Amino acid sequence: MVREDGKRNFALREQDGEESVFSGNTPRQAALKAARRLTPADSEEDADRQSLKLREKGTDKVHIYEGWAWEEEAPDNKPDWMPEVITEANVSKEGIKHLEE
């Protein structure tokens, strides 16, 4: 379901049944937001890849991504409010499943 501002809502279901909602213009944008909440590794090569299943609200689609996060030093031209170490993330699309009613 697309909002007036063009963004769509995606629900990430955790192992314990909790649901977090992420919004974005594309499923990948929402998946990147979700991946940044993963426990970050020291580097991208050491990052633990985890499956992210995002259900698009208002549809029967579940977007499946593999996501990982790592810590990195902030750029030299960072704003004053930004911490020295930031969390970076990346995702890789695995596919789409359709829920059966």
Main pleated-sheet profile: 5 strands, antiparallel
Count the DSSP helices: 1
Q: What is the N-to-C succession of helices and strands?
A: EEHEEE
Tell how many strands the DSSP assignment holds.
5
Write down the domain tally.
1
Residue windows where pLDDT falls under 50 for at least 5 positions? none
Average pLDDT value? 92
What is the element layout, followed by pairings?
Layout: E1 8-13, E2 19-24, H1 27-35, E3 50-56, E4 61-73, E5 85-98
Antiparallel strand pairs: 1-2, 1-3, 3-4, 4-5
Keywords:
9% helix, single chain
Would you kindly provide a written description of the structure presented here, covering whatever features stand out?
This protein has 1 helix and 5 strands, in the order ββαβββ. The chain is mainly beta and 101 residues long. The protein has one domain (8-98). A hairpin with a 5-residue loop joins β1 and β2.
Structure, briefly:
9% of the residues lie in helices and 46% in strands. With 101 residues, the protein is mainly beta.
